[in-house]
Amino acid sequence: MSSPPTTRLLHQLARLYDVQTAYYDVFHRRHQALPQALLHVLRALGAAVDSLEDVPSALEERRQALWERCIEPVVVAWDGAPVELEVRLPAAESSGSVACELQLENGDSRAWTCGLDDLPDMTGAEVSGARYVAKRFTLPGKLPNGYHRLHLKTAGRCCQSLVISTPSRAFGFDGGMSQRSWGVFLPLYAAHSQRSWGAGDYSDLESLAAWVAEVGGDVVATLPLLSTFLDEPFEPSPYTPVSRLMWNEFYIDVTRLPELERSASAQALLESTSLRRDIAIQRESPFVDYETQMALKRQVLEELCRSLFYESSGRLEGLRDFVRTHPGVEDYARFRATLEQRRAPWPRWPQRLRKGQLQKGDCDEAASRYHLYAQWAAQQQVQALLEEADNDGAKLCLDFPLGVHPHGYDVWRNQDCFVPDVTAGAPPDAVFTAGQDWASPPLHPGRIREQGYGYFIACLRHHMRFPSILRIDHVLGLHRLFWIPKGMEPEQGVYVRYPTDDLYAIIALESHRNETIVEGEDLGTVPPYVRPAMKRHGLYRSYVLQYELSSDSAKGARAVPSRSIASVNTHDMPPFAAYWQGLDIEQRVELGLLDRAASRYERKERERLKRALVRFLQRRGFARRGSDDCKAILMAVLAFLSASQARLVVVNLEDLWLETEAQNMPGTTDECPNWRRKSQYRLETLCRLPEVAEVLREVDRLRRGTPR
Questions:
Q1: DSSP state of 240
Q2: Cα–Cα dist 361/585, whole Å
Q3: Is the model's pLDDT at 169 over the cut of 70?
Q4: Dmax over Cα atoms in the chain, in whole Å?
Q5: Residue 174: its pLDDT value, please?
Q6: Beta partners for 650?
Q7: For labeling, which of 68, 252, 475, 625 is most exposed (least CB within 10 Å)?
Q8: Which CA distances in Å does 418 have to 44, 180, 336, 347?
Q9: pLDDT score, position 78
């Protein structure tokens, strides 16, 4: 049965805006987008559609706008090869000549002229009574890597495009690491020590990296280290940062800041009975109290900041250099200070402030200086730990989150880049039967393209400034993203496509410029075209064993790809011991995330998976017959991963002492202590645990291929 004419036109309009009208779920069932959801998303993208009656005129407007676009705002030159692009012109203007200029990123310029009549016709169309033609235009010569600007001028119009010339593949593992490397994972807040204040800090991460290098490892992986809201509002999730351009001051080690040597007030504060008592309480708690710890740390940081600004010094000049080379940081500091003064999220500010126009007097200058100083201090300590880790022979694997906080700096400063009345999320699947709403506004695919991806490039550069590995959260977002209209349920969302080639090109170019290896988080429901694209562009896959198990006794676990970063689990999954005992199923039932009928099926399936895995490991010689207890199978699983051809194996340190509590339970907020649970052991103890050292020695032996 055919669709009604209005519905067909709505679907045509959706396709012109790269909005999918249907998708297939994890069970291969087709879901048709609701008309009201499509209308909402199309309005968010800029279509003038308040109702279905507006669709025909909006469709005509969109067609005309696309043909009026002389050239695409961005084109990609893979491996410097010549670029072909369409030049779209009204038929009446398709003769004569076109003046061309290519401004290279290095300042050089190339200029030439060509005849429009000499360009081959590609296609044409008649829109709103006007005839348009598209001609094939080729950029001559080989282009150097970089961001270049193409200008075309005909008798009737001027147009320009960003030309991204880049290697087709991202930077790969270099000779500084073995062909089969290994590392460990631990969230930084969980990596507490005897000297830190109840949560890990940048010095603890530096110590952890040094220890990993000492025992033969190559990498330390952790969660995002970006700024978060830790007072009002309060959102400690590392995946909902205030900004993807700023570091988290929560992790600053105040005792390493040079200002402490000449700040008597800060020294007195650190020696005070009250502060020492409060820090001792924080150290003994099994959970991180972000608000209290940040308030304690801020007291000291404010004293150090006052000391720095009190008189001219080399350090003060260093801060000013930092501001000059990081132009957005002063703006960020004013934003945070204004937020504190007004005690309201920015969408509720007066219009001038809401639109990003801050003036002197809009915020407390002392608070602004504090945030400026905190960013400088954090930047210095992040740089020091990354350089020290690199010197020791270890690299850091940092995490690039998909989204940002809707009331954060990035959305306020880049309002044209984000879509405010929808949120990103995921459709229902086997684990999250109601779908997921991540409460983060998605980037507008058309506007970021028209703006030359300035914000996206800046975010990548912030993470890639030092040699490291960068994990791209939800790599599917380079292809398409699930948008949920506000006021609707996640299951009513629709997929919106993104300019995939452009995004891969930027990642590849920036990774080479910064010598950063890129991993794509490709877990869950991933369309079949995503992994070939990742492989084509040199992104490493995420192989997570708990996702790769099969109840087929002949398989047990899927093969580990060579171009992958392999692990047993992730921070969003139950630790191995909890998984093996089925504790995660019980917890989801208690939280209402799983009903009793589904839990019975899942327990049966889990037992089938476990039996198949045990037989698989026994056949491969990684597990002895009769050894199927949790610890023995964990050791066998790690041996299997370590003996594989995976480029990197990452060991979750908490698995090694059979931790059963997860760091995060997706789909929950206050019901679980997400992002707050400390490691059971302090770093000093952890590094001396015989069971930890024994396992890591075996991992190292298998990765190096050395005999027992």
A1: S
A2: 54
A3: yes
A4: 84
A5: 62
A6: 183, 567
A7: 625
A8: 10, 40, 20, 14
A9: 96
Do residues 275 and 197 make contact, with C-beta atoms less than 8 angstroms apart? no
C-alpha torsion angle, residues 92, 73, 426, 459 (rounded to 10): -170
SS3 188: helix
Helix (H, G, I), strand (E, B) or coil at 695: helix
Number of Cβ within a 10 Å radius of residue 691: 12
> Contact 563/535 with Cβ under 8 angstroms?
yes
Q: In 465-520, which ranges are continuous DSSP H helix?
A: 500-514
Residue 706 has pLDDT above 90, yes or no: no
Distinct helix (H) and strand (E) counts, the chain: 23, 24
Exposure string over 149-188, b if 16+ CB within 10 A, otherwise e: ebbbbbeeeebbbbbbbbbbbbbebeeebeebbbbbbbbb
pTM over 0.90: yes
pLDDT in tens, 286-300: 999 999 999 999 999
Give the C-alpha separation, 530 to 173, whole Å: 21
32-89: pLDDT as tens digits: 999 999 999 999 999 999 999 999 999 999 999 999 999 999 999 999 898 899 999 9
Q: Which two tokens stand for residue 292?
A: 């209290």
Q: What is the pLDDT of residue 669?
A: 85
Copy the structure tokens of residue 153.
């001028």
How far is the C-alpha of 365 from the C-alpha of 488, rounded, in Å? 42
Who's near 92: CB < 8 A, 6+ residues apart? 131
Taking all residues of the chain, what is their mean pLDDT, rounded to a whole number? 94
Q: 426-450: b or e for each residue (b if 16 or more CB lie within 10 Å)?
A: bbbeebbeebbbbbbbbbbbebbbe
